Amino acid sequence: VNITFLTGGYEMAYTDVAFKFKKLGKNVRIGRNVYFRHPHLIEIGNNVIIDDFTYFTTRVTIGNNVHIAPFVSSIGGSSSELFIGSYCSIAAGVRFVCLSDNFRSSALTNPTIPEGFRDDGDRLRSIVVEKHVIIGTNSVVLPGAHLCEGASIGAMSLVKGTVEPWSLCVGNPLRKLDTRDGEKIREAEKRYEEYINGQHME
Ligand SMILES: CC(C)(COP(=O)(O)OP(=O)(O)OC[C@H]1O[C@@H](n2cnc3c(N)ncnc32)[C@H](O)[C@@H]1OP(=O)(O)O)[C@@H](O)C(=O)NCCC(=O)NCCS
């Protein structure tokens, strides 16, 4: 049978934490059915939960105290990147499209076509999700999106471009509904970190 594995020889059918991640912090819980196509390009901080059926084909950097619920995907391959800052919550089914074919292009599209026949204009894209961001279920985040600190996104929203800090935004097209209290969230983070550091001193 003429099949080549996408990873070029090795395949991780389910999560094997002994596999060589670039960085893996403490107290990280990953469902057995989470898939990383490029484990050596994955950096995960401390206190992270990644639920089952989550699927990453991109480079991924995740901070501390992050929850990624089931069925989240990060798509775009190893030349694209997803950054998720600390204290973020990514609800079930969120799709990060880190790299996309150019939908306006007159060239051929999709990864079966060699470079040169495709439109390379849209290479090396990333999605940046700063600290304290919360993304509602089944939202779609497009290439180049930048969710600034504390941005909060309602369920089933379409996110592109820059989302301003501490804003609650919903829908397609995305519209601002409210503002979160960033000062209070930062204070809560400080109190929590003091508590955790105090525990470690005992
Ligand atoms: C965004 C959200 C928090 C707003 O909740 P709320 O404060 O109770 O707001 P309301 O239901 O009063 O809605 C306010 C307005 O926003 C609209 N709206 C709310 N959520 C929306 C969404 N996800 N997409 C589009 N519009 C939305 C409402 O229709 C309403 O519009 P109107 O003022 O024109 O009538 C909530 O609707 C939501 O999407 N939560 C995400 C939950 C989730 O995915 N959780 C994952 C597990 S943690």
Strand order of the largest sheet: 2-5-8-11-14-17-20-21
What ranges have pLDDT less than 50 throughout 5 or more consecutive residues?
none
Number of helices: 1
> Pairing-aware structural class of the strands and helices?
mainly beta
Helix share bin: under 10%
User: How many strands, what sense, and barrel or not for the largest sheet?
Assistant: 8 strands, mixed
Rough shape?
globular
Mean pLDDT: 89
Q: What is the tally of beta strands?
A: 21
Helix and strand element order: EEEEEEEEEEEEEEEEEEEEEH
- N/C terminus separation: 59 Å
- Ligand roster: coenzyme A
**Estimated radius of gyration:** 18 Å
The percent range for strand residues is 25-35%
How would you name the oligomeric state of the polypeptide chains in this document? single chain
Verbal overview:
- By secondary structure, this protein is mostly beta strands.
- Helices cover 10% and strands 29% of the residues.
- It contains one helix and 21 strands.
- The protein has one helix spanning 182-201; strands at residues 23-24, 28-30, 35-36, 42-44, 48-50, 55-56, 59-62, 66-68, 73-75, 81-84, 89-90, 95-97, 126-129, 134-135, 140-141, 146-147, 152-153, 158-159, 162-163, 167-170, 175-179.
- The strands form three sheets. The protein has an eight-stranded mixed beta sheet with strand order 2-5-8-11-14-17-20-21, with no helix packed on it. Strands 1-4-7-10-13-16-19 form a seven-stranded parallel beta sheet, with no helix packed on it.
- Strand 20 and strand 21 form a beta hairpin.
- The chain is globular, with a radius of gyration of 18 Å.
- The structure holds coenzyme A (COA).
